[in-house]
Amino acid sequence: MISPTEEFLSPRLKAVHDMAVGGLDDLTSRRIIDVGSDHGHLALYSLINDNFSSSVLTDIHEAPAKRSEQTLRMYGFADRTKVYCTDGLDGVELKMGDIVVMAGLGGNNMIDILKRVVEREEPELLRSIVWCLQPQKSSDKLRQFLFETGFDIVDENACEDRGFYYVMMKVMYTGVPSEFTLKQKYYGPVILRRIAAGEPQVLGYKERLDMRFELSKRGDEEIRRMLEEV
Ligand SMILES: C[S@@+](CC[C@H](N)C(=O)[O-])C[C@H]1O[C@@H](n2cnc3c(N)ncnc32)[C@H](O)[C@@H]1O
Q: Cα-flanking dihedrals φ and ψ of residue 165, to 5°?
């Protein structure tokens, strides 16, 4: 059996984990919920290294849900874990202070999942939940949804893993929609501040985004306007 310590998670998933739990000091009283758990490694790592009392894992497909269950059982955490084969958080009872991670899913998929949660849950519960989102694509659409629905992006970062850049964000629900610029939608409000501060990992990410936006500006009027914003 591999020991779920430092190198157990990929650099991307480790960065997501660190952002999810960063700045929180009462982890033993909270649950970690991993949506799209696949192998179950994130929850396993968190149970061992952060002392979470329990965890919830969900996956829309049966095979990864079974894989998650097996991983947690193999390491002796079956009694502190619940695995659901479900779409997003459908059928999962959320609790005050839950930390919900969604990593490796598309931004549009995350929007659908979050929309259903916002519709069904009380604002007080929603305001207590910490969300850590690492969209594989459509991070701009996800940010627009977050701004318009009343989620604050409290942290955001980028990491490089095997030649690819990934963006991740920590968000909290306020219920108060916020205004946003196109630059904030496409680059991310906190990423822009990190770029201004010259943080190396975001400068590499910015370079990739610059190239992508330069290529798409001819066919995309909004991206053209975004690049003209000061
Ligand atoms: C690319 S894997 C990412 C696994 C892991 N979270 C990571 O970041 O390494 C995506 C996983 O999310 C699951 N998934 C996709 N859409 C989902 C949804 N709406 N609800 C729950 N799971 C979903 C897939 O079945 C798959 O196991």
A: -100, 140
Are residue 134 and residue 213 in the same domain, yes or no?
no
76: tokens are: 């002796």
The CA-CA-CA angle for residues 215, 220, 223, to 5°, reads 75
In a domain, 1, yes or no: no
User: Domain containing 214: what range?
Assistant: 181-230
Dump pLDDT digits (tens) for 27-83: 999 999 999 999 999 999 999 999 898 999 999 999 999 999 999 999 999 999 999
Q: In what order do the strands lie in the sheet with 31-35?
A: 81-85, 54-59, 31-35, 99-105, 130-135, 164-173, 151-161
pLDDT value for 230: 82
Mutation test of ligand 1: which of 13, 32, 38, 101 has the most ligand atoms closer than 8 Å to its C-beta? 38
Distance 179 CA to ligand 1 centre (A): 30
pTM metric for this prediction: 0.97
CA dihedral 144, 145, 150, 154 (to 10 degrees): -60
The residue among 178, 195, 222 that closes a domain is: 178
